């Protein structure tokens, strides 16, 4: 059991303020019909850098005091968050210093550098301590991947847009869960705007720490060795954050787990039947709809397709062509 | 040389009226950053049925007199237009009768039937005469694929949206050309709203009738046997329509042709680098940008990605995996 704190939940006013800050910079994604009756898709794979994380990074950096922002920003990540912070920092004309574990895929490191960030590779065991050290030395503000109210509020703008676009018979919003920033923001928006709609998280069975936490009512961590088993490489975080846990405890109805086969099946069907390139982490929600419909309320469901940065080898494989 | 008439060009007011009719029904597609500097993508592959044609079909059916519309609508097509008319007719609660040549791919026939349309298969030489006969017998209005001002005005709503979303340094809009309805509508909108921006058509070299027409100043037809050679199966129409030709003559700056290799290369790069599933016909504009940049003005270009209904075998092949 991990430590728990009591912080104020992120509120709808903070999410509306985030929407004002990122308007015209993040893509206002449409809500798409899908080939599957009663399922609508929210394609965050269409964002710059291919993932929703641009929203939280833009909002967090925009909300910094200008004098602080001018120092540049710090982040640690080996995935989409690194690219989101690099992209948003470049957008605001400040430097980004990204600490990445030296076992991260070469492709992800290069993508982050290509966005103009300074990348510092560190041994995996220093991936949290080194950024702290840098923050103290340089005064650069850290942009955390999920456990931060401005990041959560930024991701919550997806919830505002779902409310604007979804029909009256919407009953369910499916959201991938890793550190919990995305689902926290969306749940906060939906709780305020559509209190009868259930926000349901989706996780790989092989990285099911949030589902176990929700079931037991306590924030539980899995080991990195456990969560590393899933193909959904964006969902390997081994526990949800402290503030996300408060949202998940109070505003999320359920967390469903999906198998690796279900994830890969949904990834392929999204390409072939819905014309969307989703990474496995972004396809878990469609997998839940296609394979666990019995766990969902009747009526219209929105599945958040959180990102599209799929490894080409995995893509070929799900198309039955490897 | 084909007959030419003089009709009034479709104007911005008709396009604005079309936008009012289809708002909330067709997807308001965003303008996306691409991995290629100075190229923005307009992803019409995200529309229901996977192609821009939903816009023209919705507008044409919405604009019918309600008593006439109640009879149901007629169309002939073996491609995306058939599905667009079927989808739009179902949306308005009227029947669609679609005449399809009996050599059309099974997949396309089934997709049209799945949308609730009545499909009539006819020998390929009756594909124009049979719908005429039906129109006379039944009084059902025909929704033509491109040579109709309501269809052109519907496609022109893409031009309105490009104007709303594109930066001030936009210089070029690239549009696939087949029968010419899409480029006519977009050119009409851009001529009114951004008169300094060049609208440039793109065609497969193997179906280059519009490029030849533009070069010679006369509307020229190629044979179906000629145009059937290209992989871009949505661009095999063997001449542009009469009204489209008037728009192309006066409002389109140039028509560029691309090779089959360039089309397939662009199709693969759109999936792997831009996370967009485009059919080859929808990828020709990206092919023109990537391979014929020297023919384009300096500054920002928008490429219209017109559709995403790609054959799975072609998709696997462009991903280097067949």
Automatic annotation (TrEMBL), chains A, B:
One of its GO terms (molecular function) is threonine deaminase activity. Its EC number is 4.3.1.19. It catalyses: L-threonine = 2-oxobutanoate + NH4(+). Gene3D superfamilies: 3.40.50.1100. Its cofactor is pyridoxal 5'-phosphate. This is threonine ammonia-lyase. One of its GO terms (biological process) is isoleucine biosynthetic process. It comes from the Bacteria. Residues 24-307 form the Tryptophan synthase beta chain-like PALP domain. Catalyzes the anaerobic formation of alpha-ketobutyrate and ammonia from threonine in a two-step reaction. The first step involved a dehydration of threonine and a production of enamine intermediates (aminocrotonate), which tautomerizes to its imine form (iminobutyrate). Both intermediates are unstable and short-lived. The second step is the nonenzymatic hydrolysis of the enamine/imine intermediates to form 2-ketobutyrate and free ammonia. In the low water environment of the cell, the second step is accelerated by RidA. Keywords: Lyase, Pyridoxal phosphate. Coiled coil: none annotated. The lineage of its organism: Bacteria, Bacillati, Actinomycetota, Actinomycetes, Nakamurellales. Pfam families: PALP (PF00291). The keyword Nuclease does not apply. Belongs to the serine/threonine dehydratase family. The keyword Transcription does not apply. It comes from Nakamurella alba.
């Amino acid at each position: 059991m991990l430590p728990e704190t009591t912080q104020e939940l992120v509120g709808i006013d903070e999410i509306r303020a985030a929407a004002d800050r990122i308007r015209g910079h993040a893509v206002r994604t449409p809500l798409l019909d899908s080939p599957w009756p009663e399922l609508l898709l929210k394609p965050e794979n269409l964002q710059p850098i291919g993932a929703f994380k641009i929203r939280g990074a833009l909002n967090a950096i925009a909300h910094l005091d200008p004098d602080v922002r001018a120092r540049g920003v710090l982040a640690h990540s080996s995935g989409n968050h690194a690219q989101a912070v690099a992209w948003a920092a470049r957008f605001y004309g400040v430097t980004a210093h990204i600490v990445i574990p030296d076992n991260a895929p070469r492709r992800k490191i290069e993508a982050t550098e290509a966005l103009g960030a300074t990348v510092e590779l560190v041994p995996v065991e220093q991936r949290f301590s080194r950024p702290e050290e840098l923050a103290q030395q340089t005064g650069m503000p850290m942009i955390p991947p999920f456990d931060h109210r401005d990041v959560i509020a930024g991701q919550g703008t997806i919830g505002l847009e779902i409310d604007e676009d979804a029909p009256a018979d919407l009953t369910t919003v499916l959201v991938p869960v890793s550190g919990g920033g995305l689902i926290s923001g969306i749940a906060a928006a939906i709780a305020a705007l559509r209190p009868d709609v259930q926000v349901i998280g989706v996780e790989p069975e092989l990285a099911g720490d949030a589902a176990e936490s929700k079931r037991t009512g306590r924030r539980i961590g899995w080991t990195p060795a456990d969560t590393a088993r899933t193909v959904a490489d964006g969902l390997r975080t081994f526990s949800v954050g402290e503030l996300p846990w408060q949202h998940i405890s109070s505003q999320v109805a359920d967390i469903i787990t999906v198998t690796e086969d279900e994830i890969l099946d949904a990834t392929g069907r999204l390409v072939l039947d819905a014309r969307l390139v989703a990474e496995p982490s972004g396809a878990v929600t469609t997998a839940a709809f296609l394979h666990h419909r019995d766990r969902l309320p009747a009526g219209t469901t929105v599945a958040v397709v959180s990102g599209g940065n799929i490894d080409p080898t995995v893509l070929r494989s799900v198309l039955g062509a490897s």
